Amino acid sequence: MSLWWIYLALLAFTASISGALTFPQHDARCPQSDQQCISILSCPQFQTRADVLRFRPRPCGFIGTTALVCCSVAPTGGLTGTRSPLPTSCGRTRVQEFFFRPSTGPPPSFELSGQLPGPPTGGRRRRQARLGGGGEGEFVAVQAVGGVDAQLGKWPWMVLFGRWTDDGLGNWFCGGTLITDRHVLTAAHCLRPEEAGNVGTHIGDNDLNIPFEVEHQVRNVSRIVRHPQYLGSQNDLAVVRLATPVKLTEHVSPICLPPAGAEHIGQDVEMAGWGLLEFGGSASDILQEVALRVADPAVCETAYRRVPQFESRFPGGFQGTKVCAESRDGEPRDACRGDSGGPLMVRLADDTYQLVGVVSTGVGCGNPEFPGLYTKVSSYIEWIVSQLT
Length: 389
Fold this sequence. Notes:
Layout: H1 3-18, E1 35-39, H2 49-55, E2 59-63, E3 66-72, E4 126-127, E5 139-141, E6 148-149, E7 158-165, E8 168-178, E9 183-186, E10 199-203, E11 217-226, E12 238-242, E13 268-273, E14 283-284, E15 288-294, H3 297-304, H4 310-313, E16 322-327, E17 343-347, E18 353-363, E19 372-376, H5 381-386
Antiparallel strand pairs: 1-3, 2-3, 4-14, 5-18, 6-15, 7-8, 7-10, 8-9, 9-12, 10-11, 11-12, 13-15, 13-17, 15-16, 16-19, 17-18, 18-19
Helix pairs in contact: 1-2
């Protein structure tokens, strides 16, 4: 039976009971602790018109024209009665020491948009970033400031987006995070106006100058789904479907998603990416990791409201959909241009990692007055899971 019957039946039921009621535009509280306010089309308890008429769902809001209902969920945040498309094993990291890191000899030169060269004869190099800057007080798409070289194999879910040219895959422009063997979570602004057929990925890579340093995998992209309410820097999220699934190995594996609505205020987190090493500087070919801490979102929003572009970039304010992350020790540490779309991660008690945020934007890089801004993953679990097809 068409799902439109479900939707129409709910609207008829809503109309019969609403009277002067008004419904919130965002998630509302449901009366039972095991319920979440989600789209009726995603709730397994109301899959037929008969279900809607018999069990009479409790309306709790609308997102655009889509009706929201209180739907029972599993304790972990997953929907009851459904088989989750998320992996059963996730967030496990493998760390090893570098087996080779030469430190002498001049590094070879190469074009950022060209084909990747062979192993370098020298040590660490930086890519010249052909990117526009952003002055103080200007929002910029954000590389890791104050970071260190990531340990080989520590972040097996890291994804790097590039463009296919006549010379091969290169012109790297954004990061992402593997969340299943076929899906990557990234920032919507990274893939605007990119077309799926022009984009490729490196998954599980570390040093872009050493092709065989780690068994990374290369995949094409078959589909890009930006959040339907992406506007300015609001709902800055996209799900990317790989043309073929990755092979899960010790070097390539997905991260875990957090429970819906999870908060991480005050927790130590880490960000990783290949972005700029300083504001207006150059990018690193070696994956960087940065130690951060989740800041109070209210204090963070108050700071950002001083920026003239705030209302146009964040219409309606943060609305509980942002994570702010700042330095743990007062030193300049932050995501920066080129890190966009990459992960903000928290380590759990069982030594697995969850994805807290997706690098979105900020004011400069490492500015102590403005913590970096990340799209809050726990606010979008239902939408993310709905795109995993």
